Amino acid sequence: MQDMNYTRNICIIAHIDHGKTTLIDRILERTKSVDPHIMHDQYLDMMDIERERGITIKAQPVRVIYEKNGKFYEINIVDTPGHVDFSYEVSRSMAACEGAILLVDASQGVEAQTVAHTYLALENELELIPVLNKIDLPMANIEETMLEIVDLLGVKETEILKVSAKMGTGVEELLEAVVERIPPPSGDPNAKLRALIFDAKYDKYRGVIVSIRVFDGSVKKGMEIQIMSTGETYEVIEVGIFTPVMMPTEDLGPGDIGYVIAGIKEVSKARVGDTITNSKFPSSDPLPGYRELKPMVYASMFPGLPEYYEELRKALEKLSLNDSALSFEPVHSPALGFGFRCGFLGLLHMDVVKERLEREFEMAVILTAPNVQYKVLMKSGEQVFVNDPAKFPKEDDIDHVYEPFVKLSVITPSEYVGSIFTNLQNERRSTLLHTENTGKNRVIMYFKTPLAEIITDFFDKLKAISRGFASMDYEFLGYEESDVIKIQILVNREIVDALSTICHRDKAYSIAKKLVDKLSELIPRHQFQIPIQAKAFGRIIARSDIKALRKDVLAKCYGGDVTRKMKLLEKQKEGKKKLREIGRVSIPQEAFLALLRIDEQEK
Fold first, then answer.
1. Distance (Å, rounded) from C-alpha 546 to C-alpha 583?
2. CA 510 to CA 76: how far, in whole Å?
């Protein structure tokens, strides 16, 4: 077991695309942790989708050996996801460490998620090393960005390290700072075992591989362990470290970061944030911070062709083996047939799941517009949670509806403050909490906002308003009472549940009108007229018609009395009426995404 004084546990926190994974590439090269023949860019991003998009989706640990003055230091690094959807994973990765490298892009400055993660690191009492990255770029604004970091952390400019992860500049100084500034871990090797689960992934040959940080005691092969939240016990088959490939070891002691394989069959049995202990001598106190991971965004998913329903179910089951945050249950829509109601951490998580289904399982899927989960108090006194507009109770049965609210933080150059404030205050039912200045020309604005208002197109709108300079982050506050209403869509006088939506009462008429107009553009014309109607408050509140394809039945009727023509037209009219009653309207996939794009009507 390594002397804890020569161990350092750190994570790297930053906004998306500020260079976390590239910096780790340079550290791996400097410490000769990876064979140069197999080294490639974004080495720790294991998924194709991570490398293509330049984002980290799964936290990935690695242990490197750094030599300084003849002494060898073990540095455990956890590369954390940067996106808000995965903020719980970030918090658990921080809990496994004593220090953090705060990485800031010199060309973009401090961003919303940088601030959010910094506060999270300070709450976890981590020692922070501020690092300025991309100093080699021509558009790098080094002086101003350093002032922003000083303002955020209250550190001296001399404490901020300057690196170029791409070129490798400053990596040596960074490793020295990690050894000097980050405290070694503490823990009692003779105490009862307590280890934090900060990640878990599924391997089809070995079961669940659990990433852990040991705080007290030790874990070794053959030991019987217990997961404290469930009480389930497993026998340890293998323990080891990440180098970054998995390397088996004798044991893992206090301060060590590594993995455990114990025949666990599902990722949901080893949840992030849970505590592992010895089942024969269990600890009475789990490590703090564990909470159930709950989906924030819901959408219905249907196979492109109904006969592929079973294949979609198997694909979702395989994905959920590796992603405990993904939840799904069967659902049926008269328009789209059988499918699944899926729960996601956020829009990026939803997008990643859809893309993985298409790539890894070659599944074409139809996704409906995303919704949030509402808490409904019925007049009967029953309380229900509703995440599907189709299952929203009738207005007469509802006493109160509560919707989820978030604390939204937006960092923007000061010239865009007015436009962003107007959009959030007037169009998205937001309340300004307070503002702060950060740096010379940047402002942080904090709003209390309904989650439903920002999960569809707000991020794109924010980037458009600020010309790409603003960034956002949010944290869940809780449920508050709200006056929301369900809008049902009728196509050819038949309710299409998959097109239903829930919105605030004040917006019902405008959203209904935009929606029926958009649908009338997207649904192709048939041989009969199709009415598109929106229903709320127990009545039709908006309508748009799709005109019938016309056939000139009078072409062969030349000359003669006008009554001949009238008879032909009347016959055609009766035929169209009959056709409308028995005819089926084919609704293309674009129509189900119309909810996401109704704001385009305003342009």
1. 14
2. 54
Q: Which amino acid is at 267?
A: V
Please say whether the structural domain 4-181 has been given the CATH code 3.40.50.300.
yes
- CATH value of 375-482 in 3.30.70.240, 3.40.50.720, 3.40.630.10, 1.10.10.10: 3.30.70.240
Q: Are 278 and 295 in contact (CB under 8 A)?
A: no
Location of structure tokens 């689960």: 197
Strand partners, 366: 302
Specify burial of residue 288 (Cβ count, 10 A radius: 0-12, 13-18, 19+): exposed
Give domain limits for the chain: 4-181, 194-278, 297-370, 375-482, 488-602
Alpha-carbon distance of 497 to 509, in angstroms, equals 19
| CA R_g for the chain | 29
Assigned superfamily of 194-278: Translation factors (2.40.30.10)
**What is residue 250's three-state secondary structure?**
coil
**What does the H/E/C string look like for 559-602?**
CCCHHHHHHHHHHHHHHHHHHHHHCCCCCCHHHHCHHHHHHHHH
Tally the C-alpha atoms within 13 A of residue 405's C-alpha that lie toward its C-beta: 17
**Tokens 């550190």 belong to residue:** 155
Cα 260–chain centre separation: 27
What pLDDT score does 448 carry? 92
Quote the crossing angle between the two packed helices 112-123 and 142-153, to the nearest 10°: 30
Q: Which pLDDT tens digit goes with each residue over 448-497?
A: 999 888 877 787 788 888 877 787 778 888 899 988 888 888 888 888 77
CATH 1.10.10.10 matches 488-602:
no
Common-topology check for domains 4-181 and 194-278: no
Q: How far apart are CA 324 and CA 345, in angstroms?
A: 11
Q: How, if at all, do strands 7-13 and 99-105 pair?
A: parallel
Three-state secondary structure call for residue 51:
helix
Between CA 307 and CA 302 the distance in angstroms is: 11
User: Comparing C-alpha atoms, which of 160, 82, 151 is closest to residue 110?
Assistant: 151
Name the CA dihedral angle for 497, 501, 502, 507, rounded to a multiple of 10 degrees.
-140
CA–CA gap between residue 127 and residue 231 (Å, rounded): 34
CA angle 384, 592, 483 (to 5 degrees): 35
Q: Who contacts 314 (Cβ-Cβ below 8 Å, separation ≥6)?
A: none
The alpha carbon of residue 339 and the mean position of all alpha carbons in its chain are separated, in whole angstroms, by: 22
Chain segment 168-206, per-residue pLDDT in tens:
888 888 888 998 999 998 888 888 899 988 888 888 888
